[in-house]
Amino acid sequence: MNDNTQEDEVLKQVEREVRMREGTSKLLAACSRREQALEASKSLLSCNARILALLSQLQKMRQAHILQRVGRRPSEDIVPCLGKVALSDLRIPLMWKDSEYFKNKGELHSCAVFCLLQCGTEIHDTGLVMVDRTLTDICFEDTIIFNEVGPGFQLRVELYSSCAIEDFFPGALGPRRLSRLGGSLGCSSGKKIRAAFESAAVCGSVSSGGDERPGSVSPPLSPDLSTLGPKYNLLAHTTLTIEHIQEGFKTHDLSLAATEDSPFWLPLYGNMCCRLVAQPVCMIQPVISGQLKVKLGEDLNCWENVYGVLRGQSLLCYQSQEDLESEDEPLLVIPIKKDTLICMSERDPVHGRSIYISTQRQGEDVTYALTMHRPEDTQRWTEVLWQHVYNMSQWKQCCDHLMKIEMPSSRRRITVKQGSLYHEIGSVTQAEAFKDHISGFAGLLSVTHFTSHLIIL
């Protein structure tokens, strides 16, 4: 795919999000119920975030294109494979004052909250949760999956809140004239970008409390849309990387972006708990397969014809391809890990060039010798093995074993333990308290995207 085709694809995505945003704005103006207005405003904020992310990607693509034209080509260094990153069972503890929670005194402070998760240009949002002092934890049952992520990813999690007082919602707003997008999106790419950028004005909220995303630009608010519907404000945020990935649940620090005098404020403890896992492509798909010869034992002439499949942490050697298809046990399993050494020998008069794999098996250093029937196959296998080892070294602990992504179940499990995360965090061992408490909350719900229903409406 050339540069112009890639830019056209991004522009099409921008246009699609702009149309979605326009439809959401019309729906928001027609909302008469609080729940409808909250959902529409949430969808509007998500559309804005996607538009700005796509425009940022488009700008980077055009900068790279300009550098290429002036002779400064982008780096051609080896690039690691992509993978899936999944975040699930997101929980945020609250710490209400004793007079509010235990004695049930004071005004019932209620807010609608959701999380916006961004990794590159891929953006998802969770379902809405209504929060008041009767809750000790904010629980999001969504499983969010990012499908094409590199090991250097940065997953930003933002918690948004909106005051749920009736006076904040459009009950008798009357008809509003929604501003139309200036110009046609189909005239030229310049007009497309300008129209999309103007339409991505963060209406309804996007108050960051003084904290802005790196590289983001806040366009001016449209006078009509900036006052339309309930407003969501950034309450807290954090950024997760590959270092935060592990099989179980883990706590992460939150950076707070609001003060107690804000109407959308909630008494956050300053932590969140979630399960963050990854599945690199090199761990879930066969990388290369074909006929090869493996040297068995110390005898230089003892070579066995096998059918090899490189997958995950193993090079599986079968006697034939039929044995692989019938799921028979492999004849030999050669471990391939992050620290495995791959080298190619000089040409042998009998077997040609050979590939030597130095690795550890059962705690001992072992070297395996491979060769192919054609010299070009030997070169191709060597390059693929080098790339595979590099992929695993970049994905680090994500390649120690294949992590499982828990998909949402159709029914929520009945939980037995319903204590507060706030009290458990205060225990002697914070991580263990989280692990014990969360173990009963494995039930997940499907991710709902409100925007997908706009076409029907």
List strands and helices in order, with pairings:
Blueprint: H1 3-30, H2 34-69, E1 83-93, H3 98-101, E2 111-119, E3 122-125, E4 129-131, E5 137-149, E6 155-163, H4 189-199, E7 233-240, E8 249-253, E9 255-256, E10 271-280, H5 281-284, E11 288-295, E12 303-311, E13 314-318, H6 321-325, E14 332-335, E15 341-344, E16 355-361, E17 364-371, H7 375-395, H8 421-425, H9 430-438
Antiparallel strand pairs: 1-5, 1-10, 2-3, 2-4, 2-6, 6-7, 7-9, 8-10, 11-12, 11-17, 12-13, 13-14, 15-16, 16-17
- Tally of extended strands? 17
Strand line-up across the major sheet: 14-13-12-11-17-16-15
Strand content: 25-35%
Whole-number mean pLDDT: 76
Are there runs of 5+ residues with pLDDT below 50, and where? Answer: 167-187, 201-226, 411-420, 422-457
Provide the structure class: alpha+beta
What profile does the largest beta sheet have?
7 strands, antiparallel
Task: Describe what this molecule looks like in 3D.
The chain is an alpha+beta fold and 457 residues long. 27% of the residues lie in helices and 26% in strands. It has 9 helices and 17 strands. It has helices at residues 3-30, 34-69, 98-101, 189-199, 281-284, 321-325, 375-395, 421-425, 430-438, and strands at 83-93, 111-119, 122-125, 129-131, 137-149, 155-163, 233-240, 249-253, 255-256, 271-280, 288-295, 303-311, 314-318, 332-335, 341-344, 355-361, 364-371. The strands form 3 sheets. It has a 7-stranded antiparallel beta sheet. Strands 2, 3, 4, 6, 7 and 9 form a 6-stranded antiparallel beta sheet that branches. A 4-stranded antiparallel beta sheet has the order 5-1-10-8. Helix 1 runs antiparallel to helix 2, helix 1 runs parallel beside helix 4 (189-199) and helix 2 packs antiparallel against helix 4 (189-199). The chain is elongated and about 85 Å long. Mean pLDDT is 76; it is low at 167-187, 201-226, 411-420 and 422-457.
